[in-house]
Write a structure and sequence with these properties.
The chain has five helices and seven strands, in the order E-E-H-E-E-H-E-H-E-H-E-H. By secondary structure, it is α/β, with parallel strands linked by helices. The protein has a single domain, classed as P-loop containing nucleotide triphosphate hydrolases (Rossmann fold). The protein is globular, with a radius of gyration of 16 Å.
Length: 204
Amino acid sequence: MTGWTADLFCTAFNSRQLPEPLLPEVAITGRSNVGKSTLINLLLNRTNKKIAHVSSKPGKTRSLNFYRITPGSSEASFVIVDLPGYGYAARASDERREWFALVDDYFGAGRNIPFVMHLIDFRHGPLDADGELIKWLDAMDMPRLVVFTKGDKAPKGRARNMYEKYMRDGLASISPPLITAGRNDAEVERLRGVILRIISEPGL
């Protein structure tokens, strides 16, 4: 399963640039600076030669980036779509409106999106901006897979209690959330398996 290969085949700044929807698409979203690009590079085995640009500056991703994934096994190819981060207020309001209009156009284009991967910083859990995203996805009846990021930065010895609290508070996910830590480890490998399993499940 670790033999995934990927290529960035489209970067769309407006709806006219969206590619033809020929394969299932897993959209990845999360608050700005949640670690989205880091996780994408890990999933795609591109930690040395990065395919997704990593920046400490929030709001770096300003387009929809489409990565064609070849799992390297009997599983069929699919696409990962890197959506712009949300919840970052320092950008000009006109620019933010353009981002959200583009994301709205993407989801309203009748594409084959089995689920959305919602990244949440494990240290903080779901914040207000995450709650807004959840309501928006629920309104579209869009399944979501929660993936925690930055688990290595959480207080030592508290991970289990934090995880259980988030779940008791009603955080819903189509598969139990995994806690990733910014490195290519067993959790990332498990996440690859979860992605392939959910894509292959009928009815999603």
